[in-house]
Design goal:
It is a single chain. It is built from 13 helices and 9 strands. It has about 325 residues and is an alpha/beta fold. It has a 5-stranded parallel β-sheet with strand order 7-6-5-8-9. Strands 2-1-3-4 form a 4-stranded parallel β-sheet, sandwiched between helices. Helix 5 links the parallel strand 3 and strand 4. The longest helix has 19 residues. It is globular and about 55 Å long. The two termini are about 25 Å apart. Bound molecules: phosphoric acid mono(formamide)ester and norvaline. The site of norvaline has 9 residues, from helix 7.
Length: about 325
């Protein structure tokens, strides 16, 4: 996929060993492309029935402070396929729930585990965990970022379109963790991202600033608007996510009203290119951010995205653990 030589690849692989995976901001364009390549390779191996177990004897701890279907199952299955073992740990069952610090939890767990995945609220929690841990820490979603999903998404777009650079991705909806990781990915990979949110629900200014910096190098275009049609215009990909993320449930009623004009439906997608792809990280609230006709329509690739969580995360684990 990339023009990196075997030597470059070896250097990248070497540099990835032992690293945390907290945000795409910590990864270079070459490293992100390397992980996408590896994910595609591991996917082929799996489909061909080839056994590949570089993590034999290793254990991943998975701490969940929020619900999950895809993240939990894909990490657990991925670890098994790579020859290792995954341990599900809910916050309520850990001493973390009774006040042991995140940093001490990281220090302790590193004595047993070879990697830790955390899904939590505040982004500083994954940073704290990584500070305490001496094994790689993976961000399985925070209020700020969802880098595993974004990596799987760019893998999926690459598989469907055969390229990333220069494509236009329109994100319509809440300026949340999902779009923030998509923006960082776009900025590093040279993708044109147009984000349409209601006023007051924009992505964080600091994320926008760093994306603009990366974009100067990659040639990416980063656009923010309040007009969903403008964002969707001539898009190669239309992406949306729930209007009220985990932790924002009490704002759901109010958000239902504010976000109504941002629903991705048959009328809105008319503004995209004829061969556009529809994407959603799932879980979807059908009838809210997306209509049934779009999510079940011929342009929708939401379950390919969900599948690629498995392959992308196997690539992350194989590379850093
Ligand atoms: N997309 C995603 O992370 O799904 P889950 O919340 O089910 O893990
Ligand atoms: N933005 C959503 C993503 C879920 C995978 C949330 O944080 O709830």
């Amino acid at each position: 996929m990339t023009e990196t030589t075997a030597n470059d690849k070896q250097t990248i692989a070497q540099n990835l060993k032992g690293r945390d995976f907290l945000s795409l901001t910590d990864y270079s364009t070459e490293e992100i492309l390397y992980l996408i390549d590896l994910a595609i390779d591991l996917k082929h191996k799996q489909k061909n029935g080839e056994i590949y177990q570089p993590l034999k004897g290793k254990t991943l701890g998975m701490i969940f402070e929020k619900s999950s279907t895809r993240t939990r199952v894909s990490f657990e299955v991925g670890m098994y396929q790579l020859g290792g073992h995954a341990l599900f740990l809910s916050k309520d069952d850990l001493q973390l729930g009774r006040g042991e610090t995140i940093r001490d939890t990281g220090r302790t767990m590193s004595r047993y585990l070879d990697g830790i995945m955390l899904r939590t609220f505040a982004h500083r929690n994954v940073i704290e965990l990584a500070r305490g841990a001496t094994v790689p820490v993976i961000n399985g979603l925070t209020d700020m970022a969802h880098p595993c999903q974004a990596l799987a998404d760019y893998q999926t777009i690459y598989e469907k379109k055969g390229r990333l650079k220069g494509l236009k991705l329109a994100y319509i909806g809440d300026g949340n963790n999902m779009v923030q990781s998509l923006m960082v990915g776009a900025a590093k990979l040279g993708v044109h991202i147009a984000v349409a949110t209601p006023p007051g629900y924009e992505p964080k200014q600091e994320v926008l600033e760093s994306c603009k910096e990366y974009a100067e190098k990659s040639g990416a275009v980063i656009e923010l608007t309040h007009d969903p049609k403008e964002a969707a215009s001539q898009a190669d990909v239309i992406y949306t996510d729930v209007w009220a993320s985990m932790g924002f449930e009490d704002e759901h009623e109010e958000r239902l009203k504010v976000f109504q004009p941002y629903q991705v439906n048959l009328e809105l997608v008319q503004h995209a290119k004829d061969d556009f792809l529809f994407m959603h990280c799932l879980p979807a609230k059908r009838g809210e951010e997306v209509s049934d006709a779009v999510i079940d329509g011929e342009h929708s690739i939401v379950f390919d995205q969900a599948e690629n969580r498995l392959h992308a995360q196997k690539a992350i684990m194989a590379a850093i653990m």
